[in-house]
Known about the structure:
The chain has helices spanning about 50-55, 80-85, 100-110, 115-130, 145-155, 175-190, 200-205, 225-230, 245-255, 275-285, 295-305; strands at about 10-20, 25-35, 40, 65-70, 70-75, 85-90, 160-165, 195, 210-215, 220-225, 235-240, 260-265, 265-270, 290-295. With about 300 residues, it is of the alpha/beta class.
Amino acid sequence: MTIEPNSNGILVGTNLTKRYTDTLAVDGINFSISQNECYGFLGPNGAGKTSTMKMIHCLSPVTSGTLLVAGMDVMTEARRVKSIMGVVPQEQNLDPDLTVIENLIVYARYFNIPLREARKRGEEYLDFFQLANKSNSKIRELSGGMKQRLLIARGLINKPDILILDEPTTGLDPQARHMIWQKIRHLKKEGITIVLTTHYMEEASQLCDRVAIMDRGKILVEGDPAKLVEERVGKDVFQVWCEGGEKEELTRDMKSFDFSYEQVGDIIYIFSKNGDEELKNLIAGKYIKFLHRPAALEDLFLKLTGRRLRD
Length: 311
Ligand SMILES: Nc1ncnc2c1ncn2[C@@H]1O[C@H](COP(=O)(O)OP(=O)(O)OP(=O)(O)O)[C@@H](O)[C@H]1O
Ligand SMILES: [Mg+2]
């Protein structure tokens, strides 16, 4: 998929490139994120997601290409760009020597928010993220989920137009993850533009209007997650656990029916464009252990980026 430069949008990257000494981390990508959109950068470890996010929030300089935020160039107007942006970094960087509320107040100082206002906002966001009762706790007394909620609260303290979330729910339990999803949806309803990275494909499917799947610094595909899955994977997946000679027989059958399939160890994944009854009957009649499920973003992710580990 070739993604052409497009100048509309609140966040526009054109041939955006990031090179570290001997690594080309982001390799000339183009994207245009609309106001109030929730846009997800997905990709295996090392794909270049964080490098892209760091250029967006002016932490890391652009090597070449351009990056405009609300029409401002991140390289020349970093201060103004930062003032309309909230950031939740991949690595938790709360100040361990301060309490929960102090972390918010001190952070607010970077934006010249008066103390009284900072405290008021801090308390509001602690309430919003169900942390009010932890206001005077030290950071080490918080659980992983609490720290992550506090990081997002901190990212909101300057009432940003754009919120950058680099893996906001990694390592959290399902309860904390769902709570954060609900808050992200709420923020989106309030008009905030959200840029997100995640390794949870369900998270991306649930939250993102569009995703870009990256690998080795490039965007491989971009679009509405459900539409991408339907176009590029299909409607259904049959997952068959094979024993003995079943694998050979099934792959022979799939070739003769012209279905696309993938073999992973003893499991064969068969992709069907339209919930094929004939295929369903064939599998149900011959195989004992199989799963018939809707195609998902994870299928597309693995199809595009492969199954090999990256680091
Ligand atoms: N400060 C740095 N100096 C040198 N190389 C770096 C630096 N930061 C990242 N890289 C390299 O750039 C590439 C992209 O890294 P990046 O952190 O952007 O990936 P990512 O998609 O965020 O991965 P993950 O899913 O693991 O967070 C990797 O090869 C990484 O080793
Ligand atoms: Mg990263």
